[in-house]
Amino acid sequence: MPGTLIIGYGNPLRGDDGLGWQVAGELAKCVDALISVVAVQQLTPELAEPVSDADLVIFVDACCDGEPGSWRCESIRPGSERSQVYAHYFTPASLLGYANAIFNASPTALLISAAVGSFDYGEVLTPSVAAVVPQMVRFICKTLEESRNSSPQSPRLHNVEASCNL
Questions:
Q1: How many domains, the chain?
Q2: Which domain holds residue 51?
Q3: Could you tell me the pTM of the whole model?
Q4: Vertex 44 angle, CA 164 and 7, to 5°
C-alpha cells in the first residue's frame, strides 16, 4: 500500500546542513506506520525504489538562498538532468526522474528547505535555524493531515501543493 516517504538530507556534522536530519528525527517520533522517515547524507540513485513506492515524498534540506532561518515549501516535478547520471550530486527532481524512468512512478513531491547560517563543523544548528525546526515539523504534520483527509473530488496533488503556499 503506498504511503508517504520523508527524506531529510544533508551533513549532520556541518552545522545547519544537518537540518534535514533534525527535522526527520523529530518527525520519526510522531508519524504513523504509513509514513516512512529516513535521514541520509545525500540523495542517491538507490533511493529511487523507495520513492517509487510512495504516493507522497517530502524532501527536507538546508539551502543557501535567503535569510538564515527563513524557510519555504515548493512542489517538485521529475527532472531529466541527463548530466546527473555520472555526477556525485542528485537533486530531488533528478531522483523523481529516476523513479519515473525505472519504476514508472510519479509520486507527488515537495521540497521543504530552510536557509542556513553556517556550514561550520559541528553537530549543532545555529539559533536561527534551530528555531524553525518546530515550525517545519508542524507544517509537515499539517500537510500530512490535509493529504490524509483529501476527498476524491479534491485531488491529493492539488491539496498538498496548495499547502505549500506559506
A1: 1
A2: 3-163
A3: 0.89
A4: 35
